[in-house]
Amino acid sequence: MESKIQRKIILQLEKRNWLVVKLIKTTMNGIPDLMALKDGRTVFIEVKTETGKVSELQKHRHEKLKSQGFAVHVCTCFEEISLFF
């Protein structure tokens, strides 16, 4: 289910001229699922189902990214993208 939400988010953002990278496997566990890039801006997106929960490690990674000045959003449906972009 998360993969379907991710795909819809990617398509929505690409329509808005964002470059979206799906972070499949990184050297850092807990990193968000998607990285969106546009006009010098980088936004990280964690995708969860409505019943999915952000793990403690993911929360830690999100806070580290935020402390570096990056935006991090958790989305449970592609419609939420309108709130952030």
Tell me the CATH topology.
Answer: Trna Endonuclease, Chain: A, domain 1
CATH architecture: 3-Layer(aba) Sandwich
Number of domains: 1
| β-strand number | 4
Tell me the Rg in angstroms.
12 Å
Specify the helix fraction band. Answer: 25-40%
**Name of the top-level CATH class:** Alpha Beta
Structural account:
Helices cover 35% and strands 25% of the residues. The protein is α+β, with helices and mostly antiparallel strands and 85 residues long. The mean pLDDT is 92. The chain starts with a helix and ends with a helix. It has one domain (2-84): Trna Endonuclease, Chain: A, domain 1, CATH 3.40.1350. The protein is built from three helices and four strands.
Keywords for this structure?
single chain; 85 residues; alpha+beta; Trna Endonuclease, Chain: A, domain 1; 4-stranded mixed sheet; 3 helices
Question: Can I get a quick summary?
Answer:
The chain is α+β, with helices and mostly antiparallel strands. It has helices at residues 2-15, 56-67, 81-84; strands spanning 19-22, 34-38, 41-47, 71-75. 35% of the residues lie in helices and 25% in strands.
Q: What's the topology here?
A:
Layout: H1 2-15, E1 19-22, E2 34-38, E3 41-47, H2 56-67, E4 71-75, H3 81-84
Parallel strand pairs: 3-4
Antiparallel strand pairs: 1-2, 2-3
